């Protein structure tokens, strides 16, 4: 009998799945693990994790991790990389961590062209604290802190992270992907691979923004949540590659 | 024995460097010594000063209001620091830029045309070295040999080409009081 | 480096000593009066192939330090007062993560932006911390440029020996002044960090360094263990200096560069026939409370001399446990209390003889 599907080697044995049903974090983390396997990086990797649901990464991956305070993952990763230029260093953050409280650290890490890879899960909300308005909450979207929907008078506008990161001279790769369909998942894996490879080739900051569902805080079924990603998020946050030095 | 020096002038006159050389000379003489500059927003206003304290034992206060000696290279510094010289202390002033006035009668005054002497040697930039020579003669607490050695240390290899001019200025300062 | 004395600024002395101690990375942001540390290291670290980052903020700098420290690297940042305040959250993390962080605080005046002139107002910030939760930092307070060098060596050693953040608490006076000092050789041995440092999970399972425990019981145990560790640090590393305490009736107590002023004051007071002594904690944390208690039990009174509104004063009072009087001679910031001011304050204290006496000059 031939095994056609198995748990990636970089994942822990007997991990407990702690994310909500239908959450896309599970898919994103699996893609990261598959790539760490494929690029043979496990024994040379240090991850800087963050605060928010993304922090649970270290429950799933059998790699070295250091926890950064909320928003500081890119700064912490900078420290890891500068002290250990030969290690593969990446961050795994939420949009609140990367683009709200940590926006200065994230952007300056990109501006410096720090040779690390950063992954940002965008689910338009602060998931762990129960669905508050975040930097990526869509116009009109109802959250626990925008009960009448996001409007420009009170809240201003959502941020387009991948485009902003692409503007930085130090960025080697920046893309936005989604996990709502199988083709999108395949594209996401290719983008993550590029974000890893630019680091391995010493080209600078590699970045992927992943549009991700949060059925619990959106009060939707997993299926409807993916429909919402397709119908509401992607029109505002277009998928694509915004910068790619590997192609040049 | 513990003695305080304030060295003051406007930016570019090299008073911090002069203080550094003075402190080095005291170190070479085997004394305990500290050097402390004005810094931060204070130094953006044009005048610059530093304090040097020399002592036989560990220096007690690095930064003080009053001083035994004040070496001032411009009028503004004279006006400010003449008030801070201890009774019985000495103010040594660059008469090229400072008016010959004696606002207090409980301190000693030494005036020398340091700027003119420096110009005669070849550059107004060495006014600070001339002033150290005058100071050495006036306060009789540091020998010109140690000062000369300190000039060499502070200029180092990088600025060795300026050594002879600076030593000449120091020498000229030492002779200015005679 | 040798034993030859050089006339050097406190800030440069700290910077060069960190290089001698093997500092692999420096992360920092400019602020007066410590900017020379970063300037010096920006010139020297690249020559040595070591890390230097001009961070976008102190917040970023201290987190870069934490990242590097998690891999066992010798790493340092330096800053001053209001900007060290910005680092407090991460210091709390670093204590919980048990990371060998070295932080230099060249104190200026507070609160708020304050001013650039020297002060000692960050005693509480360093010793008690501005971060959340129960944690303890090792705090070393140099009083001379020579000690800036010696304690920088010691800071790197203690940080790794105990896996605990260390603050070198200097002040603007020490940072800006020059004084003859020699670098000698870093006297401390290397510490093996391989058992805990992140290095990539080569031939082993992944390790995670994080501050939170996943259940209440484990978290309680974690904090207890941290405090047990600090008991060991207190036992092994508490250090202080005493001057003529044997026959002293009043003991002038100071930390950092104010130590020089109390030493000179003792001499003057003795000449006047007043039996004055001196006590100077070198480690502000762990605080030498035991020795202060012993001296108080011999009936000796204390006068704490400091450039703040009485921050160490309350720790001395706490250590004395009511056995004798603890007076305060202080000024919030600015020009250091002079020997004359200290001497006349002590004379006033002895004249009043009616219990607690606080004198703010």
How would you portray this structure in words?
- The complex is a heterotrimer of chains A (248), B (178) and C (361).
- By secondary structure, chain A is of the alpha/beta class.
- Helix content of chain A is 38%, strand content 19%.
- Chain A has a single domain, classed as 3-Layer(aba) Sandwich (Rossmann fold).
- In chain A, the strands form two sheets. Chain A has a seven-stranded mixed beta sheet with strand order 2-1-3-4-8-7-9, sandwiched between helices. Chain A has a two-stranded antiparallel sheet with strand order 5-6.
- In chain A, helix 2 links the parallel strand 1 and strand 2.
- Chain B is α/β, with parallel strands linked by helices.
- Chain B has one domain: Pyruvate-ferredoxin oxidoreductase, PFOR, domain III (Pyruvate-ferredoxin Oxidoreductase, domain 3, 3-Layer(aba) Sandwich), CATH 3.40.920.
- In chain B, 38% of the residues lie in helices and 25% in strands.
- Chain B contains six helices and six strands, in the order E-H-E-E-E-H-E-E-H-H-H-H.
- Chain B has a six-stranded mixed beta sheet with strand order 2-3-1-4-5-6, with helices on both faces.
- In chain B, strand 4, helix 2 and strand 5 form a beta-alpha-beta unit.
- The longest helix of chain B has 14 residues.
- Chain B is globular, with a radius of gyration of 15 Å.
- Chain B starts with a strand and ends with a helix.
- Chain C has two domains: 213 residues, Thiamin diphosphate (ThDP)-binding fold, Pyr/PP domains (Rossmann fold), CATH 3.40.50; 120 residues, Rossmann fold (3-Layer(aba) Sandwich), CATH 3.40.50.
- In chain C, the strands form three sheets. In chain C, strands 2, 3, 4, 5, 6, 7, 8 and 14 form an eight-stranded mixed beta sheet that branches. A six-stranded mixed beta sheet of chain C has the order 11-13-12-15-16-17, sandwiched between helices. Chain C has a two-stranded antiparallel ribbon with strand order 1-9.
- The N and C termini of chain C lie far apart (43 Å).
- Chains B and C meet through helix 1 and strand 2 of B and strand 6, helix 8, strand 9 and helix 10 of C.
- Strand 2 of chain A pairs parallel with strand 10 of chain C.
Number of domains of chain A: 1
Form type of chain A: globular
Structural class of chain C: alpha/beta
Q: Please report which band the strand proportion of chain A falls in: under 5%, 5-15%, 15-25%, 25-35%, 35-45% or over 45%.
A: 15-25%
Question: Quaternary arrangement of the chains shown?
Answer: heterotrimer
Tell me, rounded to a whole number, the average pLDDT of chain C: 95
Instruction: Report helical residue fraction of chain A.
Output: 25-40%
Alpha-beta content class of chain A: alpha/beta
Tell me the total number of β-strands of chain A.
Answer: 9
| Helical content class of chain C | 25-40%
Kindly report the name of the CATH homologous superfamily of the largest domain in chain C.
Thiamin diphosphate (ThDP)-binding fold, Pyr/PP domains
**What's the overall geometry of chain C?**
globular
Q: Which fold name fills CATH's third level, the topology of chain A?
A: Rossmann fold
Count of domain modules of chain C: 2
Stretches of chain C where pLDDT falls below 50 for ≥5 residues? none
State the distance separating the first and last CA atoms of chain C: 43 Å
Tell me the number of helical segments of chain A per DSSP (H or I, 4 or more residues long): 10
CATH class of chain A: Alpha Beta
Most residues in contact, chain pair and counts: A-C, 35 and 40 residues
């Amino acid at each position: 009998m031939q095994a056609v599907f198995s748990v990636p080697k970089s994942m822990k044995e007997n991990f407990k799945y702690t994310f909500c049903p239908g959450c896309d974090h599970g898919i994103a983390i699996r893609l990261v693990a598959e790539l760490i396997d494929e690029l043979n990086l496990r024994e040379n990797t240090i991850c800087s994790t963050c605060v928010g649901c993304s922090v649970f990464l270290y429950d799933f991956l059998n790699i070295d991790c250091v926890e950064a305070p909320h928003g500081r993952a890119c700064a912490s990763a900078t420290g890891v990389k500068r002290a250990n230029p030969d290690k593969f260093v990446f961050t795994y953050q939420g949009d609140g961590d990367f683009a709200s409280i940590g926006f200065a650290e994230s952007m300056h890490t990109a501006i410096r062209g720090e040779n690390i890879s950063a992954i940002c899960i965008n689910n338009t909300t602060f998931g762990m604290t129960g669905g508050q308005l975040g930097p990526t909450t869509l116009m009109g979207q109802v959250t626990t802190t925008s009960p009448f929907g996001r409007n420009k008078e009170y809240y201003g506008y959502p941020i387009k992270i991948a485009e902003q990161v692409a503007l930085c001279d130090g960025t080697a790769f920046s893309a936005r992907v989604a996990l709502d369909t199988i083709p999108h998942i395949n594209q996401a894996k290719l983008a993550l691979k590029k974000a890893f490879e630019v680091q391995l080739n010493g080209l600078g900051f590699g970045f992927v923004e992943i549009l991700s569902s949060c059925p619990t805080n959106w009060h939707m079924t997993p299926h409807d949540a993916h429909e919402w990603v397709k119908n509401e998020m992607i029109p505002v946050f277009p998928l694509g590659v915004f910068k790619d030095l590997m192609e040049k | 024995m513990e003695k305080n020096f304030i060295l003051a002038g406007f930016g570019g006159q090299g008073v911090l460097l002069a203080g550094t050389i003075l402190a080095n000379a005291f170190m070479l003489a085997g004394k305990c010594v500290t050097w402390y500059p004005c810094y931060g927003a204070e130094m953006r206003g044009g005048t610059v000063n530093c304090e040097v304290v020399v002592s036989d034992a560990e220096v007690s206060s690095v930064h003080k209001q009053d001083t035994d000696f004040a070496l001032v290279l411009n009028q503004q510094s004279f006006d400010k620091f003449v008030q801070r010289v201890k009774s019985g202390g000495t103010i040594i002033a660059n008469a090229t830029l400072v008016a010959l006035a004696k606002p207090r009668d409980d301190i000693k005054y030494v005036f020398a045309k340091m700027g003119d002497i420096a110009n005669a040697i070849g550059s107004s930039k060495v006014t600070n070295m001339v002033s150290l020579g005058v100071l050495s003669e006036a306060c009789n607490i540091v020998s010109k040999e140690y000062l000369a050695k300190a000039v060499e240390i502070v200029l180092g290899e990088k600025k060795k080409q300026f050594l002879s001019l600076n030593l000449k200025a120091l020498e000229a300062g030492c002779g200015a009081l005679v | 480096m040798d034993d030859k004395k050089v006339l050097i600024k406190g800030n440069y002395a700290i910077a060069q000593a960190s290089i001698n101690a093997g500092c692999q990375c420096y992360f920092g942001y400019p602020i007066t009066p410590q900017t020379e540390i970063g300037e010096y290291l920006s010139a020297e670290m690249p020559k040595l192939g070591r890390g230097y980052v001009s961070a976008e903020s102190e917040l970023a700098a201290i987190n870069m330090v934490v990242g590097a420290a998690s891999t066992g690297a010798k790493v340092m940042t330096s800053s001053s007062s209001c900007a060290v305040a910005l680092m407090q959250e991460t210091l709390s993390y670093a204590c919980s993560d048990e990371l060998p962080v070295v932080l230099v605080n060249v104190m200026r005046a507070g609160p708020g932006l304050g001013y650039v002139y020297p002060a000692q107002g960050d005693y509480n910030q360093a010793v008690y911390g501005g971060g959340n939760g129960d944690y303890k930092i090792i705090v070393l307070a140099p009083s001379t440029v020579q000690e800036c060098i010696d304690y920088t060596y010691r800071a790197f050693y203690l940080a790794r020996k105990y896996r605990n953040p260390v603050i070198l608490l200097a002040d603007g006076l020490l940072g800006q002044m020059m004084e003859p000092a020699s670098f000698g050789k870093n006297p401390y041995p290397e510490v093996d960090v391989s058992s805990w440092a992140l290095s990539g999970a080569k031939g082993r399972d992944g390790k995670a360094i994080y501050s939170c425990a996943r259940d209440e019981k484990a978290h309680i145990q974690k904090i207890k263990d941290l405090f047990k560790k600090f008991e060991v640090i207190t036992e092994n590393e508490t250090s202080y200096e005493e001057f003529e305490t044997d026959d002293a009736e009043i003991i002038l107590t100071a930390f950092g560069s104010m130590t020089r002023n109390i030493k000179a004051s003792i001499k003057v007071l003795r000449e006047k026939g007043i039996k004055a002594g001196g006590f100077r904690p070198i480690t502000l944390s762990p605080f030498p409370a035991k020795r202060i208690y012993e001296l108080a039990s011999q009936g000796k009174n204390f006068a704490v001399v400091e450039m703040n509104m009485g921050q160490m004063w309350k720790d001395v009072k706490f250590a004395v446990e009511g056995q004798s009087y603890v007076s305060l001679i202080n000024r919030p910031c600015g020009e250091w209390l002079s020997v004359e001011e200290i001497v006349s304050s002590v004379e006033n204290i002895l004249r009043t003889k009616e219990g607690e006496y606080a004198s703010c000059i």
